Write the structure tokens for this entry.
Amino acid sequence: MSSPTANNIAVLGLCSSTPLKSSCQLETYLCGRDYADVFQSKMSERIYADSGGSVTESKVVHNVPMCIQSYSWDCGLACSSMVLRYLGFDPHNVYTSDLDSLQCGESIWTIDLAVLMQKYDIRHKLCTITLGVDKTYSKEGFYKRRFISDEERVNKLFQDAFTLGIIIEKRSVTMEEIIEHIQLGNIAVFLVDWNYLECIWCDRHRCRTCKCFPCLSACCDGYQGHYVVVCGFDLKKRRLFYKNPAFDTELCCSRMDRFDIARKSHGTDEDVVFVYKDGKS
Ligand SMILES: [Zn+2]
């Protein structure tokens, strides 16, 4: 389905990532750091194909300004801020009037991110494998606490999605599609299970016993939704580059097959918001 109707209600994954910053002040919001120089060496390595002189990008990293989340629940907002800055928008209302208008409190779902994109008239596409309320999530520890109140709000958004101009497709997404999307200068916000998210550059900082990052022990108990912004790839090494709003590192890197596990883990519904650099919605 390219758009939901009243009979096609979906629940997308909820994100409430682990708190990594002891200080919950917006002043710690480090949005807008330009790291073009830092990653100049990683930018757009090109291989010229033999036939016709066409160009195939084998390695791409888009220059997405870093935004670090300030709380335990706002990785979706931080990712949205990164998207806005990448596309030349001012993200300063994201944590204030934009958040207020969502009326989601501290419970941000993937469709809320799509609503934000639409609010800024940004061309987007939300893909998910689940249309219709997945009642089994009501028993998931991650979702349980706010499931009932969130269910009504999120369902209403899906009912209204078409008229709101939110583009939704019910389907799984392949890695090839992700690469093609990124190669065209676009980026995408993925819902992943934190427990399976890897960074081959940062994982040395992880706790050896529970494989979580230094954080609350509760983060190790079952599914833990987290949003990241995928902004690059290395085809030869089969790696994806992404921005993790929970870290103050500029860029993270995962093997593609491992990222597939994280984004397809039960609880994510394989949610992804594709964001397009060109054109408005
Ligand atoms: Zn990393």
